[in-house]
Amino acid sequence: MADNFLERHYQDYELRKEAYLRKKKHLPRVVHRPERPEDEAL
Length: 42
Prior knowledge:
Helix content is 48%, strand content 0%. The chain is elongated, with a radius of gyration of 22 Å. The N and C termini lie far apart (67 Å). By secondary structure, it is mainly α.
């Protein structure tokens, strides 16, 4: 496109994404541990 519409919107998206990821790193990390299956041999 002549006015670089898509390029500008993609740059805006990248900036928002970068800010989101930077903010997300400061939050406490939630660790999901898979539950151990019960021993099927018993």
